[in-house]
Amino acid sequence: MKFARVNNITLHYQVDGALSGKPVLVFANSLGTDFRIWDAVVSDLSCDFTVVRYDKRGHGLSELGAPPYSMDDHVSDLAVLLDHLKFSNAIICGLSVGGMIAQGLYLARPDLVSALVLCDTGHKIGTADMWQERIAALEADGLPSMVDAVMARWFTPAFRKTDNPVYMGCRAMLARQDLAGYTGTCAAIATTDMTDCIGTVRVPVLCVVGDQDLATPPALVRELSELIPSARYVEVEGAGHIPCVEQPERLVRALRSFFINNSILQAVNE
After folding, report:
1. Is 238 left (phi over 0), alpha (psi -120 to 50) or beta?
2. Rounded to the nearest 5°, which phi and psi values hold at 69?
3. Is the peptide bond before 68 cis (omega within 30 degrees of 0)?
4. Which one of 20, 59, 139, 184 is least enclosed by Cβ atoms within 10 Å?
5. Chain centroid to CA 35
6. What Cα–Cα distance (Å) separates residue 58 from each residue in 176, 184, 185?
7. Are 183 and 142 a contacting pair, CB within 8 Å?
8. 258, exposed or middle or buried, with CB in 10 Å at 0-12, 13-18, 19+?
9. Domains, the chain, with CATH or none
10. pLDDT in tens, 58-97
């Protein structure tokens, strides 16, 4: 296990496939998950990339810090972690709030970003009132009270079976999530709206979404893609909000196609 002291908290991270000459690919997680959601994707891509995964503050094995958080807190954590690792010009792949962190990283530190993969995310997700209502409900009743409702947004009905061990593991991951880390990140999402600035992105961008995502629906992700010059939009068939768990092979195909079209893999494979 690897840990780094970042912005007065300890972040848990992992680097896979680290060899000189490989482009750096960074994964940022969704709300209520840890970096293991990318396992199946990393097992395929680590042969061509130096892959960085980390648990954002208040999640996984990373320290809680002082919630509630701002999006700037999450963005700065990733920037300082990459500086600590001496990585720049990285491809940042973020899921849900991780996609918002990826957008924010480009806006704050474009030197760290060579391309963006914005997965099941938006320039703005929900409303401040909606997030405050969720925070209040969670503080009253705890995370276990909301697990079933969240699973319905995360995964398709076909995946949500009690005899599916991956699904049951994801349920356990959410139920065991630190409540303060979860609500603290809800507060960060509630106050984030990049509608007016995301059009300044000038690196290759893939906007990808599960075709059955109920949390950040395809219409939202398509809207995001239309705000970003030359962004590519792709739907992953048979997936909800977390295609890296539900349909990792299909997500990898979309990622590899994007990387090849933008000469990211070609430079490594020649």
Report:
1. left
2. -100, 165
3. yes
4. 20
5. 9
6. 12, 8, 8
7. no
8. buried
9. 2-269 (3.40.50.1820)
10. 999 999 999 999 999 999 999 999 999 999 999 999 999 9
